[in-house]
Amino acid sequence: MAEQLPNTVPTAERPRGRRFARKRMLALAGLAAATLAVGTLTACSPEEESTGNGSSQDKGEDTGGGEQTDEGSGGDGGGPEQSEQSEEPDESGEDGAGGEAIDGSAGRLEVGTDIQPGLYKSVGNDFCYWERNNGGEDELDSIIANDTVEGQAYVQIMESDVYFDTEDCGDWTPVPDGVTGEQATEIPGNGGTFMVGVDIAPGTYKSAENAEECYWERLTDLSGSLDSIADNDFASGQAIVTIEEGDAFFTSNYCDDWVRQD
Question: How many other CB atoms are there within 10 angstroms of residue 10's CB atom?
């Protein structure tokens, strides 16, 4: 049965865990109702080969935002298996990105003036908070998307966004169109969000010996909507997920490292 979630949002503070709570509710809803059937995901205990997972759909996602393959704070640094060797994903955040980096602790930035719309990447995070805001009067309803990040993060700032908030994050580096990367085949289990086809390669990945707080998700985009989650789950024991070529990002938090099986 799905566990009842406690209210983790402080009444007098910024809702730092809002998106994480939304992810958890979606994952548990999928376990209970199996409402989504996209992709292929299997989470197993060490004694079992497969167990039904996913709240949304097969998620080897994120994505954290991308997540990713290097992960600053959260990741152990498992890297790509290129030929016969395994290399760590690039955590520099400088994959040929053009433009000036934005201070990750700058606070509230006005979109179009202090920061331009576009895709940004931040690495080496430990409880970094970011938020896209529409400038509305209500504190919660004005949040378009937000996240509390460990490791690597990606965010897509839109022209329609009014503000971008960033607190205790690594600097945000613009990611240019057509960026390329190592496409790692090993993913740090607490690495954050990775870009599929750049940070990590598509394929079927396995993560073993996970505690209940292991969370992963596959993302089709960075809009922050529930529809952007192709699949996700809270895994216990062993987890297997297939990251599709059409996935945009994959996020992994508090999991054992992921190793590609094919």
Answer: 10
